[in-house]
Amino acid sequence: SYFSAIFKKKMGISPKQYLLNYRMNIALSLMLEKDFNITIAANSVGYTDICNFSKMFKRHFKMSPREYIKKYKDN
């Protein structure tokens, strides 16, 4: 808990939230820039359950991975 308190004071977010942000941004980068499919991108950032990944992605980016890719892939 000491680490968590120091981390949050320094970074402004909890270690758990930082890790989630990092993993989601890496997965997004893999899908948009490297053309990884959703399952491979999810596995690459540590998610073995694609449903859980999609739920977390949607919570983070406010749309599903498919919706995000469709909206921003060709822009």
Counting H and I runs of at least 4 residues, what is the number of helices?
5
Overall outline: elongated
Seen as an oligomer or otherwise, the chain set is: single chain
Unreliable runs, pLDDT <50, ≥5 residues?
Answer: none
| Order of helical and strand elements | HHHHH
Strand segment tally: 0
* Distance from first to last alpha carbon: 43 Å
Could you please describe the fold and organization of this structure?
This protein is mainly alpha-helical. Helices cover 75% and strands 0% of the residues. α2 runs antiparallel to α3.
Write a brief structural summary.
The chain is mainly α and 75 residues long. The chain contains 5 helices and no strands.
Topology:
Blueprint: H1 2-11, H2 15-33, H3 38-44, H4 50-61, H5 65-72
Helix pairs in contact: 2-3
Keywords:
75 residues; mainly alpha
